[in-house]
Amino acid sequence: MSNTNQFQGNARVEVLFHEGKMYFRTKEGYACATSSLRRYLRGGSNHFYNECYPWSCTYGHAEDILRLNASLKASDKEVEFLNDEPEHFYQIQGSNRIYKKLSKTCIKAFVKNKSQLDHMITNCKSVYTNMLGYAIPILSYGHLFMWGGNENRIGVEDFSEEDMRTILKYALELKDDMSLSGYDRDWIQNNFIPALNSYLEGLKMSNEEIEKSLKEYRDVVEKVNETLKIHSDEFDFSDEGSYGFDCGFLTIGFADEKLKKQNALLANDSRTKYKIPSVRLPKSVQSLTVQRREFEKAKRIVKRELGLDIEILESHLD
C-alpha cells in the first residue's frame, strides 16, 4: 500500500499512538525491520479517523523499529507525530508491561519488583526531544524508586501530589494482601508507607519549616561527630586481617523514632535531600569488617556521652 500523497516536506513516517501501540505508515509504502524485530512488527488495516496505518508495534519496540524507517533527529523532520496530546502510562523498569494508570495492580507489581516505577509519555505534535535533539517516540516523564536499606527514603521526580496520594492509597490496601509474600507486606508497612507519608508531609511544610528542621537535625549530627572525634584515640582502624573483598561504607543513623522521622522527611524533600549531614566514624577505612567492629565502639561512646542510640542503616559494598 502506498501513502505517498499523505506526506509533506521531509516526512518519511507518520506515527499515531493508541492504547499501548504505535501505528504508522511510511512514505515508501513498506516498513523495515531486522530479523530480530520482525516478529514484533504487525501488519494490518488499522483505521483511525478514516486513515489507514498498515503497521503497528508495542511501545517497547517503537524506538528500535522507527529508527530503521526514518531519522529521529528532530531537525531532519522525517517523523511526524499525529497525536495532539501525549499519552501517559506507567511501566516497571525491566518489564514491558504497560499500565494505563496508577492502579492497584501497577503498585503491586512495583512492590514485588522493587526497582523503579516510570511515568512515560508518547511524543506528539508538539515534538518533545531528548538532550541530544532526537524526537524519540517514547519519553520518560518521571520516576519513583525506593532507596535501599532501612532509610525509608524515596526518590521522586515529576509525580504529582495526587499521584503520590493514589500510590499511598494502594500501598495501604496492599499491606494486608495475603497474595504478597510476608517480606513484601513487611516492606510495605515498614519502608514504603513511611517513605510516602514523609514525602507527603514534606509537601505541606514551608521553606522556613524545612530549614528549621534541617538545622535541628544537623546540630544533632554535628554533636555526635564532634564527640566521636574527641574520642578518636579509643578507635583502632588498623586492617591487619585478611577480610577478602569487603571494601565499602556504612550508612549510620539514629534509633530514636523522632530523629528517624526527621531524617526521612528531609531525605524525601527535594529542597534538602542533598544537604543532610551524616554520622561518620572519626576515620575513614575501606574494610566493612573493620568499620562494623569500630562502629560498636562508636555506639557505646555516643550512648555514654550524649544518651543517643545510633545504628547501622545500611552497608554498601563498593
Write a concise keyword list for the protein shown above.
disordered N terminus; four-stranded antiparallel beta sheet; five-stranded mixed beta sheet; alpha+beta; 318 residues; 8 helices
Task: Write up what this structure looks like.
With 318 residues, the chain is an alpha+beta fold. It has helices at residues 35-38, 62-67, 104-113, 161-174, 182-203, 207-230, 257-267, 288-306; strands spanning 13-18, 21-26, 42-48, 51-58, 79-81, 88-92, 117-122, 138-146, 154-157, 248-254, 310-317. It folds into 3 domains: 1-82, no CATH class; 85-204, no CATH class; 223-317, no CATH class. The strands form 3 sheets. A 5-stranded mixed beta sheet has the order 3-4-2-1-5. Strands 6-7-8-9 form a 4-stranded antiparallel beta sheet. The model is unreliable at 1-5 (pLDDT under 50).
Report a brief summary of the structure.
The chain has helices at residues 35-38, 62-67, 104-113, 161-174, 182-203, 207-230, 257-267, 288-306; strands at residues 13-18, 21-26, 42-48, 51-58, 79-81, 88-92, 117-122, 138-146, 154-157, 248-254, 310-317. It is α+β, with helices and mostly antiparallel strands and 318 residues long. It has three domains: 1-82, no CATH class; 85-204, no CATH class; 223-317, no CATH class.
Major beta sheet, specifics? 5 strands, mixed
Shape type: elongated
Order of helices and strands: EEHEEHEEHEEEHHHEHHE
Number of strands: 11
User: Roughly how many Å apart are the termini?
Assistant: 56 Å
Low-confidence stretches: 1-5
Total individual domains: 3
Q: Which class do the helix and strand fractions yield?
A: alpha+beta
- Give helix % range: 25-40%
Query: What fraction of the residues are assigned to beta strands by DSSP?
Result: 15-25%
Count of individual helical segments: 8
